[in-house]
């Protein structure tokens, strides 16, 4: 695991942007995307370039169960607003959280990932070490599935909703095995709230209790941190 530390989120985002744009310009075919607050500035930088992405397919990590794509809290909506409507990607895939048959939707999504191997996966992490919505305890063999969100994740995400009870309790998420299938992984973590999970991810033994530790097993993972997130590293 390669770890890069920067003074602040702006410099860290610039480094992430340099890597992503280099990969896009080199002809990357499929990019894996995350939502949440961490990659927002990265997406802002990307949408303000004129990089040709007409041959690039995107796949997102996850979507809340029960939210229509047009719902402003959905990850479909987030991706459209932050990136997709500005860039001419060949195709964009986000799980359908209102599919009639959610199990089938998971299978469909996983099949899609098999046919479009991810070249570069962008990840954020939860304060509890989750990646995608793979909460602590999730098997490293997991593929796309329905996840129950932990109280701490619902608490961390309630800032995006009017009321806490509106935060969905379930999500469709790529599994840990699906994520680890990416040829390259770029994890971004900013802020003191992530410092303990970052320390565990990098300095502690690999364990399902902190899903992000699995990145230690990936042969091409890069972690981009600001000083606050890196503050508990040895
Ligand atoms: C989002 C996702 C989550 C977030 C994580 C961090 O698609 O899969 O794992 O990356 O919860 O969220 P932020 O960036 O809001 O701190």
List segments where confidence is low: pLDDT < 50 over at least 5 consecutive residues.
none
Q: Proportion of β residues?
A: 15-25%
The CATH topology name reads Rossmann fold
Total of domains:
1
Count up the helices: 8
Mean pLDDT: 97
Termini, distance in Å? 15 Å
What portion of residues is helical? 25-40%
Strand runs, count:
10
CATH architecture group name: 3-Layer(aba) Sandwich
Form type:
globular
Question: How are the strands of the biggest sheet laid out side by side?
Answer: 1-10-9-6-2-3-5
What structural class do you assign from the helix and strand content?
alpha/beta
Largest sheet: 7 strands, parallel
Quaternary organisation: single chain
Tell me which ligands are bound: fructose -6-phosphate
CATH class: Alpha Beta
Order of helices and strands: EHEHEEHEHEEHEHEHEH
Radius of gyration: 16 Å
Overview of the molecule:
With 234 residues, the protein is of the alpha/beta class. It has one domain: Rossmann fold, CATH 3.40.50.1360. The chain is 31% helix and 18% strand. It has eight helices and ten strands. The strands form two sheets. It has a seven-stranded parallel beta sheet with strand order 1-10-9-6-2-3-5. α1 (9-25) crosses α2. Residues 34-38, 61-62, 124-126, 130-133 line the site of fructose -6-phosphate. One of its GO terms (cellular component) is cytoplasm. This is Glucosamine-6-phosphate deaminase. It is an enzyme of class 3 (hydrolase). It catalyses: alpha-D-glucosamine 6-phosphate + H2O = beta-D-fructose 6-phosphate + NH4(+).
């Amino acid at each position: 695991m390669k770890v890069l530390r920067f003074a602040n989120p702006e410099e860290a985002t610039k480094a992430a942007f340099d890597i992503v744009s280099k990969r896009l310009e080199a002809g990357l075919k499929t990019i894996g995307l995350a939502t949440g607050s961490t990659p927002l500035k990265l997406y802002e930088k990307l949408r303000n370039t004129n990089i040709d992405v007409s041959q690039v397919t995107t796949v997102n990590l996850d979507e809340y169960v029960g939210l229509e794509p047009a719902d402003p809290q959905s990850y479909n909506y987030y991706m459209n607003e932050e990136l997709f409507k500005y860039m001419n990607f060949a195709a964009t895939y986000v799980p359908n959280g209102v599919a009639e048959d959610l199990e089938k939707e998971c299978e469909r999504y996983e099949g899609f990932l098999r046919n479009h191997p991810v070249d570069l996966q962008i990840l954020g992490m939860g304060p509890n070490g989750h990646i995608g919505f793979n909460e602590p305890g999730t098997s490293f063999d997991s593929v796309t599935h329905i996840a129950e969100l932990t109280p701490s994740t619902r608490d961390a995400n309630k800032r995006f909703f009017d009321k806490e009870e509106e935060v969905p309790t379930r999500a469709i998420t790529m599994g840990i095995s699906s994520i680890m299938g990416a040829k390259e992984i770029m994890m971004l973590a900013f802020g003191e709230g992530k410092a303990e999970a970052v320390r565990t991810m990098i300095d502690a033994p690999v364990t399902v209790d902190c899903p992000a530790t699995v990145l230690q097993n990936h042969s091409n993972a890069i972690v981009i941190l600001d000083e606050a997130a890196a503050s508990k590293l040895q």
